[in-house]
Amino acid sequence: MVDDPDVRVVASAVQASLGLFVRRLRQPLRGELTLPEVSALSRLERAGAATASDLARCEQITPQAMGVTLAGLEGRGLVERRPDPADGRRVVMSVTEAGLRALRARRDARAEQLERALTGGGFTPAELETLMAALPLIERLGESL
Predict the structure, then answer these.
(1) pLDDT per residue over 93-110, tens digit each?
(2) Is the four-CA dihedral 55, 59, 61, 65 of positive or negative sign?
(3) Could you tell me the CA-to-CA distances from 45 to 30, 81, 105, 140 in Å, in that order?
């Protein structure tokens, strides 16, 4: 009879494996948006227009760091600033169509990168099925954190 797996050992192995996976996915491809830029654009895409200080608070960074990120995005036309409709003294940032295209391009590039890794990494059909079967568990684990 097989003993139940040691949860601490499983946790450590998951952390090591997913840590490598995430580090590799976070490495920017040439000319790609940086991780702070992706985070800001994604938040604006999901939640809508927001002030720089609101974005900084959500991303747990300083308002100055968010200001630098937003200035770079605005300079490339990926976000735009407008007066806050609820309070004209404040400025809100929103993602532009170009920003949405940049996000889609990044997501597509990452999906292609994963596809190349899966096809060129020697994964067998059975291994691909195992990976597919594990995805709901990985998602549930992420939601439990």
Answers:
(1) 999 999 999 999 999 988
(2) negative
(3) 23, 14, 14, 24
What would the pLDDT profile of 4-30 be if each residue is shown by its tens digit? Answer: 889 999 999 999 999 999 998 888 777
Token pair recorded at residue 48: 């809508």
Q: Are the CB atoms for 78 and 41 separated by under 8 Å?
A: yes
The whole model's pTM is what? Answer: 0.74
